[in-house]
Specification:
This protein is mainly α. Helices cover 69% and strands 0% of the residues. Helix 1 packs across helix 4 (57-82) and helix 2 packs across helix 3 (44-52).
Length: 106
């Protein structure tokens, strides 16, 4: 869980550095209906509120982190309920990961 939270924070910071705010500005100019899926992407609404001046960049990053953590939790909850016969396999070392997978397969 801690690794996931750290990855979420790193990803959000990376998105900000890669100018996701500029992308949302370009996206907003396309005037896509608010009810369509692209408007529901995590970060789009938050960045639009940031651009309106509702909060500062630090608050934007925190809000994007919160929304992403909530989404990750929903995914985990869904997979726990619907993928009961799956095994969670994780390792930072690829050879250890391969051994775990092979053990599960045999």
């Amino acid at each position: 869980k801690n690794k996931l939270l750290k990855n979420i924070e790193l990803r959000t910071k990376s998105m900000i550095k890669k100018k996701c705010v500029d992308e949302v500005i370009k996206f907003k100019k396309k005037r896509i209906k608010k009810s369509l899926s692209p408007n529901k992407i995590i970060g789009v609404q938050e960045i639009q509120r940031f651009l309106k001046g509702d909060f500062d960049q630090k608050s934007l990053i925190e809000l994007m982190n919160i929304k992403t953590r909530q989404y990750a939790k929903r995914q985990k909850t869904w997979s726990r309920a619907h993928m009961t016969d799956w095994h969670m396999v994780y390792s930072v070392n690829s050879s250890t990961l391969l051994k775990k997978i092979l053990n599960l397969a045999s």
